[in-house]
Design goal:
The complex is a heterodimer.
Chain A: E1 22-29, E2 40-43, E3 49-51, E4 57-61, E5 68-73, E6 80-84, E7 90-94, E8 104-107, E9 110-113, E10 121-125, H1 126-129, H2 137-140, E11 148-152, E12 161-165, E13 178-181, E14 184-186, E15 212-218, H3 221-224, E16 235-240, E17 250-261, H4 271-292, H5 295-300, H6 326-329, E18 333-345, E19 349-361, E20 368-382, E21 386-400, H7 412-417, H8 441-447, E22 450-468, E23 471-490, E24 504-527, E25 531-554, E26 569-592, E27 596-607, E28 616-627, H9 632-635, E29 640-654, E30 666-668, E31 686-689, E32 698-711, E33 716-728, E34 731-735, E35 744-748, E36 751-767, E37 771-788, E38 793-795, E39 801-803, E40 811-814, E41 817-820, E42 827-829, E43 844-848, E44 853-863, E45 866-876, E46 879-882, H10 883-888, E47 936-938, E48 941-952, H11 955-959, E49 965-973, E50 977-979, E51 999-1000, E52 1008-1017
Parallel strand pairs in A: 1-7, 13-16, 46-51
Antiparallel strand pairs in A: 1-4, 2-3, 2-5, 5-6, 8-9, 10-15, 11-12, 13-14, 15-16, 17-18, 17-52, 18-19, 19-20, 20-21, 21-22, 22-23, 23-24, 24-25, 25-26, 26-27, 27-28, 28-29, 29-32, 30-31, 32-33, 33-36, 34-35, 36-37, 37-44, 38-39, 40-43, 41-42, 44-45, 45-48, 46-47, 48-49, 48-50, 49-52
Chain B: H1 3-15, H2 19-22, E1 30-32, H3 42-56, H4 59-63, H5 65-72, E2 77-79, H6 85-90, H7 99-121, H8 132-157, H9 181-198, H10 210-223, H11 227-238, E3 263-267, H12 277-281, E4 292-294, H13 296-302, E5 315-317, E6 323-325, E7 338-342, H14 343-356, H15 360-373, H16 384-398, H17 405-411, H18 415-419, H19 433-438
Antiparallel strand pairs in B: 2-4, 3-7, 5-6
Helix pairs in contact in B: 3-7, 3-8, 7-8, 8-9, 9-10, 10-11, 10-14, 11-14, 14-15, 14-16, 15-16
Classes of the chains: A mainly beta, B mainly alpha.
Chain lengths: 1018, 448
């Protein structure tokens, strides 16, 4: 395993022996008074350096005169300068710094020190992700947190991100984690209504990553059950930056600028190559038509399409030209970032004020993403026992949207990639040419007019009072308000707006409002110095309303008129939906002497979504931990600085992703019809949906066992977790027999299982005065299985994807191509049922978009004023179905309608040819069996997700100018990718449909970027 | 510290907040039928009946899909698009997982469920605004729609499961076996008879009246080979001056006309409820997909002035030379009506029934009425066989893009001779595979 090479290279300096007078003592922890082995000691103004032995003792022989000043550095402790006036029995005490063990971890409704943590929580700090130049914090987390699989679906900044915390648990309900920003449960479902070919925006990209202090991902049941119904898919807690009491005002300005471009595109055939293959296709098809006695076929394929123009053809193959459309579409996009913040505080208040502006151009025209943000956090103490505060963020996100994935009309990549290369951009008369139902690329780029603006406020106010010395009460009101404004205008040069439509405009305004009111009572007390008891009680009320008003107009007087009011035909639509949630929760935790920990939590959630019979769901959890390090037999083993065993079990729920009124029997309006011919419609109603008063919560139980190990005074930290999740009563849209007049209804059926492991290793490989090297490594594997599903469900047109009992989710449903017969050139498919024919019954589940394992390796170096960060992320064993190749290797069957990829040149041509690309013909299964396993590819990758290099200007230079710190830096992303996949990037998906993963069609690949920046602190 | 004296009671109040009420959320664009039936008064009854017609006009039924099954399976159309399931109809090799089959099946049963609600619930409403006449009319319209639904099911799939009650729960309609073809047609007739007794004898081309019932009944008797009844009911319409054959042929659809005197029953569309049918016919130049188009054989016939006559208006050609069907053409808004029954059909029904009854002159006069309107001369057929063949050929052109050709050749037993469909199993469409999978009482048609 290559990563072993990255495990710590721990170096210990030897103490020097070069003088005659002893100087000895011990270095201890200021609080616990335990000795600290391995602490680095430097005698100020000398060349003497030393390290404490395994009892924390040091011993110098030196002639230095008293007093002597010791400079001490020790991992996990604050650096100290201590002056002493004695030569022996010196006791140097070090204050613990914010080490990982003492690290404060945010948990549901509170915080905990990592050393007393029972549950499995991954923490990512702002520093860990500051160098990842993507728009959204969700995409930044890739490779940073064990057990969290993150894939960017496209290369478009601010686009949807696929996140699964410990696997996918649900089929029809949502699989996305719950996002909590400063206690506000925020919306993470895209509000987009315009068609961008399957892509969807990520609402998380509204948030400016620069405002974020830390991100915690809660994974096991003991951590998530306190979030009850929404905890099943994990919880991502985002904490934004706040000031500090009693700190002076600090101004920080950070700006970076750079470029984004696509690293690699597709290999296409040239015009002559395309023509040659199509002619060959005609020749072969004619042969086969004769063999089959198909008279129509013989006529159809009698003449080659690429024959001389004189004989009515398109010209001979060698006369064909090649036109490069990809080069027109792809560009080097510009990236600009500006962030300015002010933070500080007095003894009674603290504040953080941040402003940011980001501009990111995608690597294809004309897509871009702009975000402006303003953040204000404030806390005020009132007397000794009361504190009030507020968090406020306002974001404006502007996107120039364009359709890039599926769908011919208005589709950028289909026009650029799927149009055959021999076809010219212009008609002989100089007008733009359109082919195969695709728009003309240049016309599309010049006339694209689809954009969206998201205005979003996320904020809360709270008051906290200490009712009794150990009893705190807190109340808060939170709001997540999002106004999403979209407009589309297709003028008459584009296909969608061309005559007879004469311009097509859509405007949609969507509002999403969530308010939350929450009360908690928190009690924590330590008795007799040994027993610590914590009790939490709380309730939450939450309401969410989403409404959309949209209008559409067509028939514009000319391209100068763009507003719907100018259109001849206008229609409007309105949608409104609401859901409420009432919850009560509690948690009791107890620990004995920091050694034995036990925690019990429970939440009751009542949801307006469920039938009267099951409105409330109850979600308990229990967890325990044993910190062996505190036991006598380990207390004095210095190599082991921490050892803790953890276990938890609990139940969480899921109700997201189903309709707000899914349980109700409904009659819908909107089925109007006239009374007589020629009169206008009058209102009509019809039965829309069957009721299911028994609809209830989807439940996921989870067992987690884990071990935390710290070695060499926590220079090496290892966290291992094993888990098993079982989802029952899965919310499913079950088919109902159509004679009922309905097709589906929501019910609880189906079971999904996930099992996996996570390993996270943190290692401080080298730490001395000048040089530090730290490595973080994490790897996770998850195996997913649909344990029960009443009927298989297929997804996406041509049913590429199928969920079926006994298989994992995100599996493909294909005909398995075994080989191409070297004698005949025909593709041989596996005849699963051995009936001598290849029929639907021979389609099988093959491959899955779920990786066998994934993770990241991050190395950070500092050398004096320089810092270097190298972050890799990797994924292994996932499959991608290459739909671009499916269309581009049609063997001539699509003739002038689709491009041919260069791979098509490997086709079988004569007996003895060994290839997997079958003989080109219209007959047989070679190119007519659409779901061939030939296009299923290995999607494993290793990416250099970020490379950063920084230089801090010397303090002496900048302090005169009044600066505290000035850092110049460079960031590169995706600079290197190792993959087998034939497309530009295996980390890709054409659609935001949650059950479809790993389909690559016309989606812009993730860009390679470089940026230069400066960060100034005043 | 005094604050807790207030905060604890406050917290208690919040905790006792009436959850029940807070969690009770209702939609605003729909009403719940859980506590009571939705059809409770004159207005809701009228609304439900209009919803019933919108169901017949839906994409899956007379909007596009069901119609397409009828004409694609004939011999006039060639597949020119990207969806290969279309080709299955054209080559008479429809697979049970064909999505169009499932769509049409569901759409028809959705109409039957809407009709069942009306038939069951409207008679029980007590509301002075719902006069006995209106009550009869609405109930009669329900019976008509149900008759149409079972008729279309029977001619496409054979005997089907019969359900006559509104569906309330997801489990309601399990445990029902397929009826025989006889039983299914018997249900059609019984519903038509009920509708006949309830509906007013008025002319309304977009909703069912007694006359619409007679028209469907004429077609029903033709399918059942009850020739005398077919003549009787067809005559009722032909003799009614409200219905006339318009000339030229295109007069009943061209120039954005709706509800012409040609039309006995058509579905109405509007800006709010457009008819998407044109998208499958119109070429990309007219913003369609040209999923299918008239084939060469049909083009030769319809463009032959001695055979097609003015019916050549059904097809058009793009500047690039692509032929396309032009019956559904209205661009913006797409308000082409869906034609369910035209008076021309009743002439040809009577012609066929008369020929079968050996009233050859009567048959020829009806056939010639349709030919004359198309700008053609009298038919030269003389024998019964030749007249029947002439009627068959006339129907091929007259209803080229309406759902007749396939059903005609199946009911006359001519599919083998004309379409080369030699496997008798292929004369019925397969029951949707998903339905067979989901309902153990639903048997697949033989051979699928």
């Amino acid at each position: 395993m290559s990563w072993l090479a990255l495990l710590p290279l721990i170096t210990y300096a030897q103490s020097e022996n070069n003088s005659n007078i002893t100087l000895s003592g011990v270095v201890i922890d200021a609080q616990t008074k335990t000795p600290l082995p391995g602490a680095t000691i430097h005698l100020k103004n000398t060349t003497h350096d030393g390290v404490t032995n395994d009892k924390g003792e040091f011993n110098f022989l030196t002639g230095q005169k008293l007093p002597i000043t010791f400079q001490l550095t020790y991992i996990g402790y604050k650096q100290a300068e201590i002056t002493v006036n004695q030569r022996t029995n010196i006791v140097l005490a070090l204050e613990a710094a914010n080490t990982q063990l003492n690290d404060v971890v945010v948990v549901g409704y509170g915080t905990q020190q990592r050393k007393s943590l029972i549950s499995s929580i991954a923490k990512v700090t702002a520093a860990d992700v500051k160098d990842i130049p993507v728009a959204g914090v969700d995409a930044q987390l890739q490779g940073k947190a064990a057990g969290v699989q993150i894939n960017s679906n496209t290369g478009v900044p601010g686009d949807g991100v696929f996140i699964r915390v410990r696997g996918a648990t649900s089929i029809n309900a949502s699989n996305d984690p719950l996002y909590v920003v400063d206690g506000v449960f925020i919306n993470n479902t895209s509000l987009q209504t315009v068609n961008t070919g399957g892509r969807a925006t990520s609402p998380i990209a509204d948030i400016n990553p620069a405002d974020i202090e830390s991100i915690e991902v809660l994974k096991d049941a003991s951590a998530t059950a306190i979030y009850g119904s929404r905890g099943a898919n994990g919880v991502v807690i985002i904490t934004t930056k706040r000031g500090k009491y009693g700190s002076k005002p600090t101004i920080n300005f950070n700006t970076s600028h750079g470029w984004a471009w696509a690293p690699q595109l597709w290999d296409l055939t040239t015009g002559p190559e395309h023509a040659t293959i199509v002619n060959e296709f005609y020749r072969n098809s004619e042969q086969d038509a004769i063999a089959a006695g198909d008279q129509a076929g013989i006529t159809k394929y009698a003449q080659l399409p690429f024959r001389s123009v004189a004989s009515g053809g398109r010209g001979l193959p060698e006369e064909q030209k090649t036109y490069d459309r990809l080069g027109e579409l792809f560009r080097t996009g510009a990236l600009h970032n500006y962030n300015l913040s002010l933070q500080g505080g007095t003894q009674t208040n603290k504040y953080y004020l941040g402003a940011g502006y980001q501009q990111q151009e995608a690597d294809i025209r004309p897509i871009n993403f702009n975000r402006a943000s303003l953040k204000f956090n404030f806390d005020q103490k009132i007397g000794d026992h009361v504190q009030v505060g507020t968090s406020n963020s306002i974001y404006r996100t502007y996107r120039n949207q364009a359709r890039s994935g599926d769908g011919p009309q208005g589709g950028l990549l289909q026009s650029a990639l799927h149009t055959p290369t021999y076809l010219p951009e212009l008609n002989p008369d100089g007008t733009p040419a359109r082919y195969a139902g695709f728009d003309n690329l240049q016309v599309l780029i010049d006339n694209y007019d689809v954009h969206s603006t998201s205005l979003r406020y996320i904020g809360n106010i709270y008051a906290e009072a200490e009712l009794l010395p150990d009893l705190k009460f807190r109340t808060s009101w939170s709001l997540d308000y999002n106004h999403y404004d979209e407009s589309e205008y297709w003028n008459n040069l584009t296909q969608l707006g061309a005559a007879p439509t004469n311009g097509l405009a859509t405007s949609a305004l969507t509002q999403n409002t969530t308010w939350i009111n929450e009360q908690t009572l928190n009690y924590r007390k330590t008795f007799d110095g040994k027993h610590t008891l914590g009790v939490l009680l709380g309730n939450t009320l939450q309401s969410n309303i989403q409404s959309t008003t949209s209008a559409q107009g067509s028939g514009f007087p000319s391209n100068d008129f763009k507003l719907i009011s100018a259109a001849a035909t206008r229609t409007a639509d309105q949608e409104w939906t609401k859901a409420t949630l009432a919850s009560f929760f509690g948690r009791i935790d107890y620990n004995y002497a920091g050694k034995y920990f036990v925690e019990v939590s429970a939440r009751a959630d009542g949801s307006s979504r469920f039938g009267q019979h099951h409105q409330f769901g109850y979600f308990p959890a229990i967890g325990g931990a044993w910190r062996l390090k505190e036991e006598p037999f380990l207390k004095n083993v210095n190599t082991i600085s921490d050892l803790k065993l953890r276990a938890s079990y609990g139940l969480t729920g899921n109700q997201n992703g189903i309709g707000n009124f899914a349980a109700q029997g409904l009659w819908s309006g909107g089925a109007g019809y006239p009374e007589t011919s020629g009169s206008s419609d009058q209102a009509g109603i019809y039965p829309l949906q069957l009721s299911n008063p028994d609809l209830k919560w989807e439940k996921t139980s989870q067992v987690n066992v884990g071990v935390d190990l710290g070695l060499f005074n926590d220079r090496l930290g290892i966290e291992v977790n094993l888990y098993s999740k079982n989802t029952t009563d899965a919310l499913l849209q079950l088919p109902v027999n159509a004679i009922s007049g309905f097709n589906t209804y929501y019910a609880n059926a189906g079971k999904v299982g996930n099992k996996g492991y996570e390993v996270a290793i943190t290692s401080i490989n080298v730490r001395n005065k000048h040089f530090t090297w730290q490595t973080n490594f994490n790897i996770s594997g998850n195996s997913n299985k649909i344990k029960e599903l009443p009927v298989p469900v297929t997804y996406y047109n041509r049913d590429w994807v199928r969920l079926q009992q006994g298989y994992s989710m995100y599996s493909f449903w294909l005909y398995k191509q075994l080989y191409v017969d070297p004698q005949t050139g025909n593709a041989v498919f596996e005849d699963v049922n051995k009936d001598g024919q290849i029929t639907t019954a021979d389609r099988q589940i093959m491959g899955s978009a779920i990786p066998k394992f994934f993770g990241g390796i991050n190395n950070n170096f500092t050398y004096g004023p320089f810092d270097l960060g190298i972050a890799f992320s990797f994924q292994y064993g996932n499959d991608v179905y290459n739909l671009n190749r499916f269309f581009g290797e049609g063997g001539g069957t699509r003739d002038a309608n689709r491009v041919l990829f260069a791979d098509q040149l490997k086709r079988w041509q004569k007996p003895g040819d060994i290839t997997d690309v079958p003989r080109v013909t219209a007959y047989g299964n070679n190119y007519t069996l659409e779901q061939s396993s030939r296009f299923l590819e290995d999607g494993s990758f290793l990416k250099l997700s970020s490379l950063s290099f920084g230089y801090n200007l010397p303090k002496s230079l900048i302090s005169k100018a009044g600066f505290q710190n000035v850092r110049l830096y460079f960031i590169g992303s995706n600079l290197l990718i190792l993959k087998k996949y034939s497309g530009p990037d295996p980390e890709i998906n054409v659609t935001s449909l949650q059950n479809v993963q790993g389909l690559d069609l016309g989606t812009p690949p993730q860009p390679r970027t470089v940026q230069f920046g400066v960060n100034v602190t005043l | 510290m005094n604050t807790h004296k207030y905060i604890i009671p406050l917290l208690g109040t919040v905790l006792l907040f009436s959850c029940k009420k807070f969690l009770d959320v209702a939609p605003r664009d729909a009403v719940s039928d859980e506590t009571a039936a939705v059809i409770t008064d004159g207005t809701s009854a009228a609304n439900a009946v209009r919803g019933l017609y919108r169901g017949i006009a839906a994409d899956g039924y007379y909007g596009t899909t069901f119609q397409a099954i009828g004409y694609l399976s004939g011999d006039n159309i060639v597949w020119t698009g990207s969806q290969s399931i279309v080709q299955q109809f054209i080559s008479h090799n429809v697979r049970a997982d064909n999505a169009s089959i499932a769509t049409a099946w569901s759409a028809i049963y959705a109409v039957i469920n809407r009709a069942n609600h009306i038939i069951t619930e409207v008679p029980t409403v007590t509301d002075p605004s719902l006069t006995p006449a209106l009550k009869n009319q609405y109930t009669g319209e329900g019976y008509f729609a149900r008759a149409l639904g079972y008729f279309d099911l029977a001619r496409t799939w054979g005997g089907v499961q019969i359900t006559l009650t509104p569906t309330v729960t997801a489990q309601d309609k399990y445990g029902i076996k397929r009826s025989t073809l006889q039983q299914t047609y018997a249900q059609v007739l019984s519903d038509l008879v009920a509708a006949d007794s309830l509906l007013p004898e008025t002319t309304n081309r977009v909703r069912a009246t007694r006359k619409t019932v007679w028209a469907l009944r004429a077609r029903y008797h033709l399918y059942r080979q009850e020739w005398a009844n077919a003549v009787t009911y067809a005559s009722k319409l032909i003799d009614d001056p409200s219905y006339t054959l318009l000339s030229p042929y295109s007069a009943w659809f061209a120039n954005n006309v709706t509800g012409t005197a040609e039309s006995v029953f058509e579905m109405s569309y509007s800006t709010t409820y457009p008819n998407t049918h044109r998208n499958s016919w119109q070429p990309p130049a007219n913003n369609g997909t040209r999923q299918w188009a008239p084939n060469d054989a049909f083009l030769a016939l319809v463009n032959d002035p001695t055979i097609g006559g003015s019916r050549s208006a059904l097809v058009a050609k793009t500047s690039a030379g692509l032929w396309y069907g032009n019956l559904y053409y209205r661009p913006n808004p797409a308000t082409d009506p869906s034609y369910v029954i035209r008076i021309a059909e009743l002439y040809l029904i009577r012609a066929e029934a008369r020929a079968q009854l050996n009233d050859l002159n009567g048959a020829l006069s009806d056939l010639d009425a349709v030919r004359t309107r198309a700008g053609l001369g009298h038919s030269e057929a003389a024998t019964k066989e030749n007249i029947l063949l002439a009627i068959e050929n006339e129907r091929r052109l007259e209803f080229a893009f309406e759902p007749h050709r396939w059903f005609d050749l199946v009911r006359t037993g001519r599919a083998a001779a004309v379409l080369n469909v030699t496997n008798p199993d292929r004369l019925l469409m397969p029951v949707p595979a998903s339905e067979v999978l989901n309902d153990k009482d639903l048997d697949q048609n033989h051979g699928y």
